Amino acid sequence: MSRLGPSSPPESRVRAILRRLRVAYPEARCSLDFTTPWELLVATILSAQCTDERVNMVTPGLFRQYPDPQAFADADERQIAKAIFQTGFHNQKARSLHGAAIAVLERHGGKVPRRTEQLVKLPGVGRKTAAVVSGNAFGRREGIAVDTHVGRLTRRLGFTAETDPERVERELMAIVPRSAWVEWSHLLIWHGRAVCIARSPRCPECVLLDLCPEGQSRVPPARSRRTP
Ligand code: SF4
């Protein structure tokens, strides 16, 4: 078997990266707490510019106060904003939640739509949120959620030079097997939190070092790992 390296074909590196990260993070999953598609939609909207941990601290109280789309639609936006204050950008997010609740009621009979193309038409819902909800609440693989971790790691791993999340997603969709579209985001997010952190990636201890152009430029060539 030929040895993989940072300049091996992207599809081969993607497969090796998936194998290794599955071993490193067998528990990788969506970090947002939810029990229904609507709760995941709300949590994902709240997670913009906010950690999942903080969102998970806010949502239990929020869902007690507003248990379903009807309750959000009936609520005053200012009251919603107060309840989500800790997640930041609370006025903008309250507007999105209120608008999304009304749209879900008026256009979808109170049920969150399953398909990305319908989800992105809801107020405050972009491709990332749509991919998270479609993938994690409905098990559909219609896109790859590109958040700050996924974007950063995808660039460091040399799969794209793009910074626009939608362009990064398009490039990933061309090389990541469709069966792994949802998993890819989870694994990269967990790796981005644990090892490939934004300010100072821990390349010497990274299981992807020998496959990563950025890592190779940061660590002397003597340090290498065998291709499984
Ligand atoms: Fe990130 Fe370094 Fe690992 Fe590459 S080798 S994925 S830059 S931690």
Provide the list of bound ligands, each named once: iron/sulfur cluster
Count of folded domains: 2
Order of helices and strands: HHHHHHHHHHHH
Q: Major sheet: size, sense and barrel closure?
A: none
Uncertain spans, ≥5 residues at pLDDT below 50?
A: none
* CATH topology term of the largest domain: Endonuclease III, domain 1
Describe what you observe in this structure.
By secondary structure, the chain is an all-alpha fold. It folds into 2 domains: 10-25 and 145-216, Endonuclease Iii, domain 2 (Orthogonal Bundle); 37-138, Hypothetical protein, domain 2 (Endonuclease III, domain 1, Orthogonal Bundle), CATH 1.10.340.30. It has helices spanning 10-24, 37-46, 52-65, 69-74, 77-83, 90-108, 116-119, 127-138, 148-156, 165-175, 181-194, 213-218. Helix 2 crosses helix 3 and helix 5 packs across helix 6. The longest helix has 19 residues, at 90-108. The mean pLDDT is 95. Residues 153, 156-157, 195-196, 201-203, 206, 208-209, 212, 214-215 line the site of iron/sulfur cluster (SF4).
